[in-house]
Amino acid sequence: MSTSVPVGRGAAESWRALRRPMLITGIIVLAAIVVLIASAASTSGPFSPDSTERDGARALSNLLKNHGVEVEGTEFLSDAVESGAGKTLLIGPNGRLDRADWERIADAGWTHLILIRPGQTELSVLAPGVKGSSQSLSSFSREPECDLPAAVKAGTATVGGSTYSAPPGAVGCYGDGINHTVVRVETSGRIVDVVGTSRSFTNSELADDGNAALALNLIGTHRELTWYLPQWESDGADDAGSDGPPLVPPDVRYVGWALAFAVLVVAVWRGRRLGPVVVERLPVIVHAAETTEGRARLYRRSRARDRAAAALRESALGKLHKAHGIPRRAEPTAVVATLAARTGWDPQTLYEALYGMPPVDDAALLNLSDVLEYYCRRSDTREHY
Q1: pLDDT digits (tens, 9 = 90+) for 247-260
Q2: How far is CA 167 from CA 123, 184, 194, in A?
Q3: At a CB cut-off of 8 Å and minimum separation 6, what does 79 contact?
């Protein structure tokens, strides 16, 4: 009767082996959750009120806060469709919503709307009568050339970008006389400002000209400001008037981050861990001399006298170059001339031995080996002396 002995690890041993990786993984997952929550509570990307990058708007957000304006950044549509009576809503560029969502924003009752580089659908719902122009103005210092109080107080400003045509009763500023980069229109009991570019209000250009004054007087009209950055990527269809449904909702990116982090944790957990280098005992120790003799036997068996002669000549040339201080890339004629001048050996014999034709038989190969060995031995003797 035979008995089997279990070779697997017990529960206690498994726990001791796994508790440290589990603890580290738990800490990492907890930190990732905290980061995701913090990211969800703030905005990011171009023209974000929380971004300190060159294309961010942290400087403008701080300026507004210093003048008593409460700035709330958001990337969620639900914050833009809530009741906005007595408040200002700023809608950033690069987002894409369908007509139904723009109509929900219009019905929210915002007192003041600021549209940054809006598309045609957005304009038709929130600023009827304002039309986008195919002409763009280069960004440089311009006079307002209008009686809009915010523009008059700011004076010259560095503006450019998309332009719009102002309908009757609207005010157009900072343009070329026909199209304007800033348009104000009053509709449905609210004030709507259309701005052709966000660049003038970013961290990199807010301090230029009267940009800061224009932004403060244009945006800081009420004590509460909701800074909305739509997160559905725009494919340009919105500017063409398409009302197709959005493809990717904003919450999907958080799910993607969580999945990517989960994959990373699993890869670290299940990845191969390389321990210290283990010295393996070789089954057979082959000496260098045996390797040389084995190669010589292979040459002899295949009658490769040319390769054997080339190996002998290469080794001899290496020793002669070193012994006489000859550069490795020296021409054969220069090598032979230098050796003949320093040793008195016959140049013709030297050239035949070092650079001649391959031996025709085994006897010639042995003779070549003896000649090369003589040259190397004499050179070693001269080097010692």
Answers
A1: 555 556 667 777 78
A2: 12, 10, 12
A3: 72, 226, 228
Length of the chain: 385
User: Is the pLDDT reported for residue 2 higher than 50?
Assistant: no
Task: Confirm if 21 and 269 have CB atoms less than 8 A apart.
Answer: yes
Q: Which of 223, 229, 189 is nearest to 86 (CA)?
A: 223
Residue 254 in contact with residue 18, Cβ under 8 Å? no
How high is the pLDDT of residue 382?
56
Q: Which residue has the tokens 């800074």?
A: 227
Helix (H) or strand (E) holding 66: helix 58-66
The string of pLDDT tens digits covering residues 272-324 is 666 677 777 777 776 777 777 887 788 888 888 888 888 888 888 888 888 88
- For the record, the structure tokens of 133 come out as 């122009």
Residue 186's CB: how many other CB atoms inside 10 A?
11
Tell which residue, 267, 254, 375, 257, has the closest CA to residue 312: 375
Mean pLDDT score across all residues of the chain: 81
Using the 8-state DSSP alphabet, how is residue 200 labeled? G
3-state secondary structure of 151: helix
Strand partners, 184: 171, 193
Nearest to 336 by CA among 54, 344, 88: 344
113 Ramachandran zone, left/alpha/beta (phi>0; psi -120 to 50): beta
Q: Is the pLDDT of residue 36 over 90?
A: no
C-alpha 219/C-alpha 192 separation (Å) is: 11
**Residue 64: predicted pLDDT:** 94
pTM of the model: 0.54
Question: The dihedral of CA 290, 296, 299, 300: what is its sign?
Answer: negative
Distance CA 233, CA 29 (A): 29
**What mean pLDDT comes out for the span 352-373?**
87
- The SS3 assignment for 72 reads strand
Please tell me the distance from the alpha carbon of residue 266 to that of residue 323, in angstroms, as a whole number: 61
Point out which residues pair with 224 in neighbouring strands. 70
